[in-house]
């Protein structure tokens, strides 16, 4: 009798252990997808897979051709940055809720991790580890097409092309502004602050958005020309039409806080942290139950 009871307990313990292992294994085995440029040589393909390491060990591999990149970037990025061959590659791994968007790059010379993260959040990407890579230095503009393809495949979601193109436009506007003011970290931060304000306050018209652009630029000691203000305003009008919310957008910050700290001028990052705390308290205030 005692032996039978012991056996039952052992079986129960084994059953619970199996369930826990299964749950943990599932949580630790998120979907991973690797995209490789169609114009890579066989040796370059192997180089990319080695660079991606564990992410490519059991990943689905998709080839991205130049037509895929043109579909996303034509009319958004200059042809000189799109190029004529598909070289950029990427690895995307879906992570648990709360992970946010984290981006690293190798041999990407123009698009920063912050620019990717900002654009990906606008596209609706959530909780993803992203690596953009190339076998030799490239601008990285075309890599966005592969990253978005990888994310949609790995997550099983579909992002409307219009939303993807708006995200690509944000990447280009941010990069160009960063070049013009000499600080891409500051340009990325400005874009994030304006975007959060626009989404949080449901601003949709140029008349309502333009003062926000000017105000946030002034707070960051960024001097904008009238053309730059108009360009950012028009971009934000497009972003305001997407189904985004400020709380979700904050997940992208994990991908570029370090970059902002490293590149921004003294005191800039402290100001950014204060602003993030204000945004967080504002979000918590909106979702906290009201008492009568």
Radius of gyration: 22 Å
Distance between the termini: 59 Å
- Could you give a short account of the major beta sheet? 5 strands, mixed
Helix content range of the residues, please? Answer: 55-70%
What percentage of the residues does DSSP assign to strands (E)? 5-15%
What is the count of structural domains?
Answer: 2
Spatial strand sequence of the major β-sheet: 2-1-3-5-4
What is the averaged pLDDT score?
A: 82
**Helix/strand structural class:** alpha/beta
- Strand/helix succession: HEHHEHHEEHEHHHHHHHH
Which term fits the overall shape?
globular
**SS element count, helices:** 14
Task: Please tell me about this protein's structure.
The protein has 14 helices and five strands. The chain is α/β, with parallel strands linked by helices. The protein folds into two domains: 126 residues, no CATH class; 113 residues. The longest helix has 26 residues. It is globular, with a radius of gyration of 22 Å. The N terminus is likely disordered.
Question: In terms of topology, how is this protein built?
Answer:
Blueprint: H1 2-27, E1 32-37, H2 42-52, H3 54-57, E2 60-64, H4 66-73, H5 79-82, E3 89-94, E4 101-105, H6 113-123, E5 128-133, H7 143-155, H8 161-181, H9 184-200, H10 206-219, H11 226-240, H12 246-249, H13 257-263, H14 268-287
Parallel strand pairs: 1-2, 4-5
Antiparallel strand pairs: 1-3, 3-5
Name its key features.
292 residues; alpha/beta; five-stranded mixed β-sheet; 14 helices; globular; disordered N terminus
């Amino acid at each position: 009798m005692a032996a039978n009871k012991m056996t039952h307990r052992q079986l129960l313990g084994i059953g619970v252990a199996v369930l826990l292992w299964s749950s943990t294994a599932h949580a630790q085995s998120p979907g991973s997808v690797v995209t490789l440029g169609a114009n890579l040589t066989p040796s370059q393909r192997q180089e990319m897979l080695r660079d991606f390491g564990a992410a490519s060990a059991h990943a689905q591999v998709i080839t991205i051709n130049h037509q895929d990149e043109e579909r996303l970037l034509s009319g958004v990025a200059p042809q000189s940055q799109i190029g004529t061959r598909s070289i950029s590659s990427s690895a995307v791994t879906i992570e648990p809720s709360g992970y946010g968007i984290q981006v690293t790059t190798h041999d990407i010379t123009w698009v920063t991790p912050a620019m990717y993260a900002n654009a990906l959040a606008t596209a609706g990407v959530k909780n993803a580890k992203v690596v953009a890579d190339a076998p030799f230095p490239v601008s990285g503009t075309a890599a966005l097409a592969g990253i978005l393809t990888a994310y949609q495949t790995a997550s099983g979601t579909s992002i409307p092309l219009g939303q993807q193109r708006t995200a690509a436009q944000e990447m280009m506007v941010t990069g160009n502004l960063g070049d013009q003011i000499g600080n891409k970290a500051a340009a990325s931060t400005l874009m994030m602050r304006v975007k959060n304000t626009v989404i949080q306050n449901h601003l949709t018209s140029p008349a309502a958005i333009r003062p926000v652009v000017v105000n946030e630029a002034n707070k960051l000691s960024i001097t904008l020309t009238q053309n730059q203000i108009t360009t950012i305003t028009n971009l934000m009008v497009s972003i305001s039409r997407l189904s985004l919310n400020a709380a979700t957008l904050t997940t992208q910050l994990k991908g570029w806080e370090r970059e902002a700290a490293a590149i921004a001028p003294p005191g800039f990052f402290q100001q950014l942290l204060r602003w993030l705390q204000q945004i967080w308290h504002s979000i918590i205030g909106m979702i906290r139950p009201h008492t009568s």
